[in-house]
């Protein structure tokens, strides 16, 4: 028996305390908790529902264990410990995730799409004693993205008048629709009995229809020239998903990937704190500082001119897609304007935005905050995403056009360690279906996370402090690719034990295009800057070149064996290559470091309506001796009781703040006075 089995017995059997085998399980856990490691977590035997009550003397106090663990990466410049997903200190935080709503049971399943035909299911209607046209009248509304030129048009969608549905099969020309069915002879103020959103891949997209048709014509013309079209490149991502938590929460999906022969990248490390900078690196090849200077000087400006790789896919006549389930927290939209012009051929945002606004209208019409619905009618958010993705895949297969879709799920996983488990069966079934249909025969698949869990008590553990920097990444190559490029799979296996980052992802995507298309490689971007001579007051324009780093370091050939974090674009404060040594919480250095971090942070808020933060309690402390000495300190603040972790450079007994992050969730009632993703992290608005 092991800890994993104990946990499964505990969560599945409500009468577990009566089971004789519990005694053996408890003894096993005690030996692990208080034997060789002497973990200071005396609250283990509390209910998992009360884990917030757990306190730690110092969440780095077990750092001595690092030397007893195996190593995932073991090179001169990087040593990453091989934590088990089932480390004893993690077990109290693992519990069965609870459904907010059981979508398939709460809502009826009266409609679905068959390519571009809307089908009404009479049998499903009869189950609830309704009959189409007899006591139900149905209609559909077309949903469109608000046209460019309107301020913040990425945050709105236009909805047409309701077109009556006159038969059980209706041809649909719109990309997104919402179907509504009402009981006949009911008042107009009565809410619909049924409402469901559908999305399909179509050439009728208002903004991109000419480009989509051009791509279809290109491949129709070239179909006779070669039967070997470039492979699809499919990215499926989950927010806040570390390598370890993917293994904990997605056993079915994990099994499918392993059976496919996908390779797990054990040394894949994030390059930014949140989703945004990690995707910026993967899709543009620039770090967040370069990106913001180059093309997004203000969060409320659109990002249309940023050099995303989907431009090169457009040039190569790939059909492109961006599918996300959480409009408020989307990759390019959290406290940001997003885009003015639609950047990809198929863009799910209008549909999910309309569903979210309808949910808000139904539940809390006075709220100014968008709260994503747990269900898109009878489908979960993940199911709705994958249904739309499957429509795009079928459209590409039907027209023999290569695809570059990105599907990124946030709702279940953002800030919830256990939420990912709710979607495990959904993704496992989807991948298995894609295999059965033959889609994966010509698809290079990336299944990834952006970072690990950044909030909550789990973060304040030794394991959590490491895994937040080590997101999930699996890569699958189809047989035909392996046969043509056998060195690719060999390189992946080598690189699985080497330090990699989202910058490798960017160059890997480019390398695939290099091999299969004639499109030119990405050029370094330039920005025209106006400079004024102080003495002559004359102006002149100069061109600043933004050179992409880490060029040609893709994953299909062995990467640098002894790479350091700086070699792969990982900032020092996020580097997990060097062991930490715990410090006593009473060490004066930790108090000094905490105050130094707060002083630097408070200075940035002097012109705001935010309160000055003071030190509360120190809850963690460690020192990293190489390559440069750093202090890591965890503490709480007054006011707000924020949980914070700061990394400070410590040279010649001088402290300088390198990085500071919140490790608890932001209470929106505390940050009403700011509308900025960076400011809200450490703001407690004055009353």
User: Helical region count?
Assistant: 18
Derived from helix and strand composition plus strand pairing, the structural class reads alpha+beta
Whole-angstrom Rg: 26 Å
Largest sheet entry: 7 strands, mixed
Mean pLDDT level: 88
What would the principal axes of the Cα set say about the shape? globular
According to CATH, what is the class of the domain at 232-360 and 398-517 and 525-570?
A: Alpha Beta
* Helix fraction by DSSP (H/I, runs of at least 4): 25-40%
Provide an overview of this structure.
- It is a single chain.
- The chain is of the alpha+beta class and 687 residues long.
- Among the domains are: 3-72 and 83-93, no CATH class; 232-360 and 398-517 and 525-570, Alkaline Phosphatase, subunit A (3-Layer(aba) Sandwich), CATH 3.40.720; 581-682, Nuclear Transport Factor 2, Chain: A (Roll).
- 28% of the residues lie in helices and 21% in strands.
- It contains 18 helices and 26 strands.
- It has a 7-stranded mixed β-sheet, sandwiched between helices. Strands 5, 6, 7, 9 and 10 form a 5-stranded antiparallel β-sheet that branches.
- A hairpin with a 2-residue loop joins strand 25 and strand 26.
- It is globular and about 80 Å long.
- Residues 1-54 have low confidence and may be disordered.
Please describe the topology of this protein.
Blueprint: H1 3-12, H2 21-34, E1 71-74, E2 79-81, H3 103-106, E3 111-114, E4 117-120, H4 122-127, E5 136-145, E6 157-159, E7 163-164, E8 169-171, E9 176-183, E10 194-199, H5 209-222, E11 232-238, H6 243-249, H7 251-260, E12 263-264, H8 275-284, H9 288-295, H10 310-315, E13 319-324, E14 346-347, H11 349-363, E15 375-376, E16 379-380, H12 381-399, E17 403-409, H13 424-437, E18 443-449, H14 462-467, E19 473-476, H15 479-484, H16 486-495, H17 502-516, E20 525-532, E21 539-546, E22 581-582, H18 588-603, E23 614-624, E24 630-638, E25 643-651, E26 654-662
Parallel strand pairs: 11-17, 11-18, 13-14, 13-17
Antiparallel strand pairs: 1-2, 3-4, 4-8, 5-6, 5-7, 5-9, 9-10, 12-19, 15-16, 18-19, 20-21, 22-23, 23-24, 24-25, 25-26
């Amino acid at each position: 028996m092991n800890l994993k089995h104990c946990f499964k017995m505990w969560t599945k059997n409500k009468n577990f305390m009566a089971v004789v085998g519990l005694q053996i399980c408890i003894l096993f856990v005690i030996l692990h908790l208080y034997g060789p490691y002497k973990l200071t977590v005396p609250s283990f035997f509390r209910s998992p529902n009360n884990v917030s009550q757990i306190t730690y003397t110092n969440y780095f106090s077990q750092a001595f264990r690092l030397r007893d663990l195996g190593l995932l990466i073991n090179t001169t410049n990087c040593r990453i410990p091989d934590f088990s997903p089932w480390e004893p200190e993690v077990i109290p935080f693992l519990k069965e995730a609870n459904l907010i709503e059981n979508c398939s049971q709460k809502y009826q399943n009266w409609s679905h799409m068959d390519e571009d035909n809307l089908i009404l299911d009479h049998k499903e209607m009869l189950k609830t004693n309704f009959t189409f046209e007899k006591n139900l009248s149905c209609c559909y509304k077309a949903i469109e993205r608000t046209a460019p030129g309107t301020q913040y048009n990425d945050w709105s969608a236009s909805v047409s008048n309701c077109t009556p549905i006159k038969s059980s099969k209706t041809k649909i020309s719109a990309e997104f629709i919402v179907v509504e069915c009402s009981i006949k002879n009911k008042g107009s103020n009565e809410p619909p009995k049924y409402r469901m959103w559908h999305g399909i891949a179509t050439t009728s997209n208002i903004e991109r229809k000419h480009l989509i048709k051009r791509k279809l014509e290109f491949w129709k013309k070239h179909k006779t020239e070669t039967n070997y079209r470039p492979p699809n490149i499919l990215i499926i991502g989950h927010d806040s998903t570390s390598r370890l938590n993917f293994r904990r929460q997605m056993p079915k999906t994990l099994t499918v990937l392993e059976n496919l022969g996908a390779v797990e990248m054990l040394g894949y490390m994030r390059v930014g704190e949140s989703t945004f900078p990690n995707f910026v690196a993967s899709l543009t090849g620039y770090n967040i500082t370069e990106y913001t200077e180059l093309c997004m000087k203000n969060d409320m400006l659109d990002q249309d001119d940023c050099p995303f790789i989907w431009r090169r896919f457009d040039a190569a006549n790939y059909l492109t897609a961006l599918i996300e389930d959480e409009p408020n927290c989307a990759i390019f939209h959290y406290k940001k304007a997003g885009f003015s012009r639609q950047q990809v051929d198929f863009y799910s945002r209008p549909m999910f935005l309309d569903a979210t606004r309808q949910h808000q209208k139904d539940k809390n019409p006075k709220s100014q905050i968008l709260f994503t619905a747990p269900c898109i009618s009878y489908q979960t958010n993940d199911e709705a995403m994958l249904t739309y993705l499957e429509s795009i895949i079928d459209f590409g297969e039907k027209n023999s056009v290569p695809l570059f879709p990105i599907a990124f799920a946030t709702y279940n996983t953002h800030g919830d360690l256990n939420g990912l488990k709710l979607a495990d069966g959904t993704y496992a079934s989807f991948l298995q279906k894609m295999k059965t249909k033959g889609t994966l025969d010509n698809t290079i698949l990336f299944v990834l996370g952006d970072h690990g869990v950044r909030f909550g008590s789990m973060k304040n553990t030794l394991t959590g402090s490491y895994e937040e920097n080590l997101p999930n990444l699996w890569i699958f190559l189809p047989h035909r690719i392996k046969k043509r490029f056998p060195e690719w799979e060999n390189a992946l296996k080598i690189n699985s034990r080497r330090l990699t980052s989202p910058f490798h992802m960017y160059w890997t995507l480019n390398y695939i295009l290099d091999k299969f298309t004639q499109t030119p490689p990405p050029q370094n971007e330039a920005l025209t800057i106006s400079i004024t001579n102080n003495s002559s007051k004359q102006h002149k324009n100069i061109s600043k070149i933004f050179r992409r780093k880490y060029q040609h370091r893709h994953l299909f050939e062995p990467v640098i064996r002894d790479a350091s974090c700086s070699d792969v674009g990982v900032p020092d404060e996020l580097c997990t290559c060097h062991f930490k040594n715990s410090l006593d919480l009473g060490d004066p250095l930790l108090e000094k470091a905490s105050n130094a971090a707060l002083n630097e942070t408070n200075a940035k808020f002097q012109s705001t309506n935010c309160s000055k933060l003071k030190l509360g309690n120190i809850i963690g402390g460690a020192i990293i001796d190489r390559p440069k000495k750093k202090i890591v300190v965890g503490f709480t603040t007054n006011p707000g009781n924020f949980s914070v972790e700061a990394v400070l450079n410590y040279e010649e007994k001088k402290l300088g703040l390198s990085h500071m992050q919140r490790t608890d969730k932001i209470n929106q009632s505390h940050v009403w006075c700011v509308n900025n993703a960076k400011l809200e992290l450490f703001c407690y608005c004055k009353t």
